[in-house]
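Why does residue order matter? Because the sequence determines the fold. Keep that principle in mind as you read this record.
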Amino acid sequence: MNRMKKNLFLCLFAALCTTSVFTSCSDDDQPGTTTPVGVDVTGDYKGALDVKLVMAGGIEAPAGNVPSQLVSVTKSGENVVNLKITDFSFSGMSLGNIELSGCQLTDAGNGTYTFTTTSSMEVNGLLSADINAKGSFANETLTLDLDIDNVKLVENPVDYTVKATYSGTKLSGTESSEAKILSFVFDEKTAAANSVVLEQPVIDEASKTIKFTVNAAATTEELSGLTPTIEVSDKATVTPASGTAADFSNGKTVTYTVTAENGTTVEYVASISGNVSFYDFETWVEGVEGQEPEMTFYNPEGWCSSNAGVQFLKGFGMADSYVVESTSDAHSGEKAVSITSIDTQGKDMMIAKVPKVTTGSLFLGSFITDVANTLNSTKFGVPYSGKAVSLKGWYKYTPGAEFYVVNEQPYAQHCHEAVLDKTKTDEFMISIVVYETDAYDTDKWSDCLTGVTDTENNIYTSSRIAAIAQLTGGQQDEWKEFELPLEWKKEYSADKKYRMAIICSASKDGDKFWGAPGSKLIVDDFELVAE
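Structure:
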């Protein structure tokens, strides 16, 4: 079949139906007598409507099925009725109401009353066709057949016809009008890192929406075959039916139509409201390959840390341990991340200033050593296209005993001159920052914001920041959950390029080389929620 012609015909047929151009019914050439006075077939009928396209050779192609179609029958004269098919639709299109007016009833015997009509139609010189309609009333049941043939598009014949059949039962008037989705759930286990659906959908009755979140790692194939179990009001039906696979991939929405016992319909729109990226810190990889065993350090897969800078200090005997390491003291699973600020002695090595306190930091981005300006070594942020909404996770924190400050600026030039300040206690910081970039430099990461103190290039003060959220705090002996909703300072645009950084620091003022050696932040089970 010519698909272009088919689609054009469907569109024209839609216009035809919405303008109700069917001509009046007649009883021409029908045997029998007219309906006796007193027989009443008026009322609302509910039943199944089936629409097919019939191609040359009699091959039929389904074009739609409505299991709970409503048809209204009203009296227009003695033994004459009007029929209206409410919200007629097929092939995914809602075509409005179809009306058959002035249908004369004929008594066919045995309590059956029939009507037929043969007519033609024309729409603005674009579409013409012949219509054959016939139907009957018997035992509170209405059956109806519509045949549309000899179809011409702009005077060109097409090689198919449209056939619609209907069978419905008369409603008593006492049927329930409630058409609600009471529950909409997915059978698979939710809230697990390897699940596709992360939480059961939430039904908003006011807006008639159903929303749920999915795993950011879910594939198109997985999202295109999600199968909900749906519970609706008593004696109501829902289309698509419960247990039918639905396609939610690539931002698609799915409309569910609930039909009450009396034929009332209500539509709900289901969609994915967001996705979640999980960071469980179970897998660790070498930070730099090919190092001697005593110099080897590890980072959580996909993450970076200030271990690379500490490796340089270890080579000069100024650090005994790395600042980011795995720990078995995990919130869940076998591993978490231990982030520690350490004493690196504080020395002027001529080629570089070695700080008294080196802050432990874990972040998304890259570390490229800049001996002249160590704060420029941390390249914060990875390419990110979504709209981040919040960061969730778990943490513990123990501050170190002695807090050191650097009093002279620039701090990087005086970091080795830190002095003890007994009035201060260390605190941690967990941050998430989304910022704009013109282009991604995946070689030198030159487009990244860093820890440098100048306002424009600093990860916390740059005008390029689009969204940010931060958490600071002190002593926390037991695991504590946190949630950081992002504050969007600029309007999100899918056309812009962004980098996103999550930064965890054992000493929140580490960019000033302030902190307490021994301060330890342990984090686990991060979840990044995005729209």
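The two ends are 41 Å apart (CA to CA).
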